[in-house]
Amino acid sequence: MKDQKDNFATQEQVFVALASLTPDELRLLDYQANRLAFGTIYATGMALFGEALDRASDLRRKWYPECMPFMTFMRNTMASIASNDRKGFHATRVANVSALTRIEDEVEDDAFLSSLQGIPKNSVEDVLIAAEEHEAMLRDYDALYAYFGDDEEIWNILDAMERGLIGTAIKEHCKLNEAQYAAARKRLNRGAAKLKSQGKK
User: Fold this and answer.
1) 122: in domain
2) Residue 171 lies inside a defined structural domain of this protein
3) Can you give the residue range of the structural domain that contains 62?
4) In the chain, which end has fewer C-beta atoms inside a 10 angstrom radius, N or C?
């Protein structure tokens, strides 16, 4: 019998799975890529998605179809790449910004500030605070996405919440009826409470 660790997808299977993604799944992956790319060397979500796909297709990152859906695999791969990059690149960037606090004159280096992808061009303190708050938000949502694995309904609800939607707007965004939405929110609340009790959230 073939060992489980050998049951990873081939390059062809990866591309077939990519072509089989629905418009809603592609939309969600695109949103996740843009969110995860913040604070990394990847200028856009598409660049991060492309890197994840490259690693999947050349088997540097192996997808095991029997263990998880392709969409979950791609999202986890992007999260891993972004997290590893952020640990190094973000630390260097914060150190560079911190160095500017020793300068008494107002910071006017637009080229430098423009390199801080997505961070507001305010004071040095604002830059650091914005980066820290965004990373804290990423950790919170990443913990929930990881906890619920391939629960597509929960993923869609989290996506809607990150977009600032509430109540009926979330149901419409997720295309859920009253019963489905109530059940999904119940699962989400239980999961969030469990993560909080474990100190992971």
Assistant:
1) yes
2) no
3) 7-150
4) N
Q: Please give the helix or strand (H or E) that residue 12 lies within, else none.
A: helix 11-19
Q: Residue 44 gets which letter from DSSP?
A: S
- Counting the structural domains of the chain, the total is 1
Please indicate, yes or no, if residue 164 is contained in any of the structural domains.
no
Residues, the chain? 201
Picking from 105, 102, 167, 94, the residue whose alpha carbon sits closest to that of residue 134 is 94
Domain contains 126: yes
- 0.90 cut: is pTM over it? no
144-166 CB burial, b ≥16 within 10 A, e <16 = bbebbeebbbbbbbbbbeeeebe
Question: Cβ-count burial of 41 within 10 angstroms (0-12 exposed, 13-18 middle, 19+ buried)?
Answer: middle
pLDDT in tens, the chain (201 residues): 445 556 889 999 999 999 999 888 888 899 889 888 887 888 889 999 999 999 998 888 889 888 888 988 898 889 888 877 766 554 554 444 444 444 444 444 444 444 444 444 445 555 555 555 555 555 677 778 778 877 888 888 887 777 767 778 888 888 889 899 899 988 988 888 888 777 644
- Spatial distance between the Cα atoms of 83 and 117, rounded to a whole number of angstroms: 16
At residue 103, what are phi and psi to the nearest 5 degrees? -95, 125
CA dihedral angle for residue 182, residue 184, residue 189, residue 195, rounded to 10 degrees: 170
